[in-house]
# Entry
Amino acid sequence: NAGVTQTPKFQVLKTGQSMTLQCAQDMNHEYMSWYRQDPGMGLRLIHYSVGAGITDQGEVPNGYNVSRSTTEDFPLRLLSAAPSQTSVYFCASSSRPGTSGRDTQYFGPGTRLTVL
Amino acid sequence: DAKTTQPPSMDCAEGRAANLPCNHSTISGNEYVYWYRQIHSQGPQYIIHGLKNNETNEMASLIITEDRKSSTLILPHATLRDTAVYYCIVRSNTNAGKSTFGDGTTLTVKP
# Structure
């Protein structure tokens, strides 16, 4: 299994540009989430999904859209990039707690985004 | 959803046990306690989790109080490579997708 993969690893945008951060998992996990991590801070939840076709907002959803058309993929779209969105973005997936011996969240390697 | 509270930073001498506390006073009966750590800017990595019993694996031990309002992660023999940010979170079947992490505890292991 490749686990959770994220592309691109690095990205530089200009203010106002849009882009999509890709996230895919091959573990057949129901749950997927997007987090952002600003320098010296913890992870903040942007959006999450509990299954294909179902998404919901997290702590900091403004400026981001998500969709979940398949179990495997959970892309994050920046509609109009702003310097305040400069951050490291992590995608995570998991099975339902209690369904297996190690039903934890698995994290991707992150996408480092800079908005100028 | 239950939130967690952790001290912002802790130090530990190399070779000694590191005991990292976490308060989760509003935890509900179906919520598990999970611990992760994040080294440098990598994605967080799972360490251990539990519901109400103490747990041990090859990395650490987890002690959950009887009332489940707090827990302690124990790294029995800390090494320099254990220097990282440690996160305690709570998750259940109903909120698994929206786990929030907070700022965690920065553990510094010193020679």
Q: What stands out?
A: The interface with chain A takes residues 32, 34, 36, 41-46, 49, 85, 87, 91-93, 96-104 of chain B (CB under 8 Å). DSSP finds no helices and nine strands in chain B. The mean pLDDT of chain B is 91.
